[in-house]
Amino acid sequence: MPVNADFQGRTYPPTEPYRVGAAKIREFADAVGSDDPVHTDVEVARGRGYADVIAPPTFAVLVAQQCDAQLIRDPEAGIDFSRVVHGEQRFVHHRPLTAGDVVIGTLHVDTVRQAGGHAMVTTRTELATEAGEPVCTATSTIVIRGGE
Fold first, then answer.
1. pLDDT for res 2
2. Dist CA 92 CA 106 (whole Å)
3. Residue 21, class by beta-carbon neighbours within 10 Å (0-12 exposed, 13-18 middle, 19+ buried)?
4. Backbone torsion region of residue 49, taken as left when φ is above 0, otherwise alpha when ψ lies between -120 and 50, otherwise beta
């Protein structure tokens, strides 16, 4: 089943709230090799003007990929996850994700196109606090490999 091109322009409902925790930030910073204490030491973070420790910039992918899963799991989309290759990821940060934030993501399917026998799908996830304050725009392109 080919990827459903009619999904271009679709917007999915907002995700369940994701609570950003200091422990998760520390684990992520460790995993990506960031040794900046702004990610692990609340006093350093406060000294730099933040309310609590802040997440490394790519931390937003944790929430964005939960949003992307809505599309991947949608049987009408026609995406065979075993054929998916992650092509590109971009972030536009409106402010840092901070421990204590509760964020919600809204997934938009911006483009669905064919290229060289493969499908390419670009999604945009708008992350915002529960109060509606924009935090990050995450854009992802996946390639769904065509038949052998």
1. 81
2. 15
3. middle
4. left
The dihedrals phi and psi of 57, each to the nearest 5 degrees, come to: -55, -35
- The upper half-sphere exposure of residue 58, i.e. CA atoms within 13 Å in the direction of its Cβ, equals 11
Tokens matching residue 40: 């692990």
Structure tokens at 17: 């709230």
- Neighbouring residues of 136: CB distance < 8 A, sequence distance ≥ 6: 60, 64, 91, 92, 93, 94, 97, 127
Strand order in the sheet with 102-115: 18-19, 102-115, 118-129, 134-144, 84-93
Alpha carbon of residue 119 to chain centroid: 20
pLDDT of 148 higher than 80: no
Q: Is 122 helix (H, G, I), strand (E, B) or coil?
A: strand
Which pair of structure tokens corresponds to residue 12? 């999915």
Q: What is the pTM of this model?
A: 0.91
Nearest to 93 by CA among 65, 133, 122: 133
Q: Tell which wins on pLDDT, 2 or 35.
A: 35
pLDDT band at 56 (very low <50, low <70, confident <90, very high): very high
**Token output for 24:** 């998760």
